[in-house]
Structure of Flavodoxin family protein:
Amino acid sequence: MDFLIIYCHPYEKSFNHAILESVKSNLAHKHKSFKVIDLYQEQFNPIYDKEELRLFHTGKTHDLLVTKYLDYLREASAIIFITPLWWNSVPAMLKGFIDKVMKEGKGLSHTVSKTGIHGELTNIKHTYVLTTSTSPTFYVKLFLGNGIKRIFVNKTLKQLGMQDRHWIHFGGVTNSTQHQRIAYLTKINHYNFL
């Protein structure tokens, strides 16, 4: 598998869904193989229960989707996240995906040593995070601390071993014009995902 797409939005008529369709069209046109994890459609449960937490340090799970998703992550050479920003961060569904799927252990997503976390997902050579927000992009970057890039992209995903990380944002989606949205989708449809 060339690409793994992790899609996190519950509404099939959202702008995020249009972005997903543009990404899929782009990859298909370039004859890239890909799989899509649609967290809402697949009814992924992002909540840690007691049993899941008990199994964490063993690298095991009792959630079959966690096993499937981790296998997909270890097979992919590139990953594309598509998600809105809600309250200046990723939705709880995506945060729960990171919490539950990223299992500690050699050959899983990461190992922990006395000096910190070592990412095991080094097979992922290219990482793209495509986000939208109601806040304008300059506001997200300058006044909200640029948390997605600083923490999610350049800390969390880096710690997991994901390489060549890019953040592509469409801000002000609520007040955007149809022309702006079409122009962005056209850009994504022709973007050079390596």
Q: What stands out?
A: The CA atoms of residues 7 and 82 lie 5 Å apart.
